[in-house]
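Dear Dr. H.,

I hope your travels went smoothly. While you were away I took the liberty of generating a structure for the chain from your last submission, since the lab meeting agenda had it listed for discussion. I wanted you to have the full record in hand beforehand rather than looking at slides cold. The sequence, exactly as received, is reproduced here:
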Amino acid sequence: MFKHVLSLAGVGAGLLAATSALAQPGGNNALPDGPGKELVEIACTTCHGLNYIQRSAGYASAADWHRVFSTMVRLPEAQAETIATYLATHFPEDTSRRPNLIAGDFDIEITEWQVPTLGQRSRDPAEAPDGSIWWTGMWASLAGRLDPETGMMEEFKLPPSARPHTIVPDDDGNIWYTGNSNGTIGMLDPETGMITEYPTEARDPHSAVFHPNGNLFFTSQGAGMLGRLNPETGEMREIQTEPRPYGIKVDQGGDVWVAYNGTNKLGRMDPESMEVRYYDVPDERTRIRRLDLDSEGNVWFVNSTMGKIGRLDPDSGEITQWDSPSGPDSHPYSMAVIDDVIWYNESGMRPDALVRFDPASERFQSWAVPSGVGIIRHVWVTEDKNLLIHQSSSNHIGLVRIP
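The corresponding predicted structure, in token form, is as follows:
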């Protein structure tokens, strides 16, 4: 059960065809012939390849298609209707992708806001010390700020080549981001709008977390590296690690935990020496995107390729896993632990499903994300123990209020 509030604040201005900052490489495979094909090829390749359409789960109606692409690009109504009809005709809903939603008696309330700049691929929201919600517009190289009380939003331009992947506010309210395309760690001062960049050896800084000692630790997925930045001195240290490090968290003792999307491992890094101890997760097909920790120091993780969530006891090395409700193709992605209850999403489903798992009872409950398109790739637990989510393809930022 949930209450859904959808705010369509800030619908952007104009067609994005002239906005080169949003260009995203991708394959352009041939589309089926039919009225509207040429319009799709014109309008839908500004930000991505046509293969995104062909790999999609489709939609049941022209209205559903219209709702989705209207969050990506603004078109005259006549062209929008033609495109929507074409897409609904040739790319209907793949009903096998519907999530297996589990009923329960826990109530939540989901509020979503559409971000101002269309097609930006908004993602990775985070809460600043003043309660504002920040996000990255990866394809538009921007950082956005939302006042959740009023719904007011503003967007800060970052270096065009940055394409920020993740942002992390510091205690002073500065916004730190990973420059995924220009190999930098950046800091935005919201008071002045000024940006400071710290070059990295790695080509693609990915996810980041502040340590209690003040250092910023980060992963670089493509480069296979882990990094540490001292914001006070600018000192940077980077090391090679196992393939495709992804999510990163700090435990209560100060050790830095890393999820690996290129191998079946979890890593535990000493924050001083940066030496890493690895824990193998059963089945070599396992790939892990995100992780979090509970109050007892257990490491919870999403086994994305196997459709499971898991728990590692670092002391014993014991690993326990549970099947996600929608099965082996559910592709769990993001994860957070709130009061020792596990929250994650099933990104392989349409709509994206938000799942709650109570380890004490081993019971699941799940909800469809209302905007339902775009994949929750990262979540953030607020000071009030609510959950920040997003839908990148449909350019929404969301707040899940948890009783």
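Two observations you may find useful: The longest helix spans residues 77-90. The chain has two domains: 14-96, 108-401.

With kind regards,
E. W.
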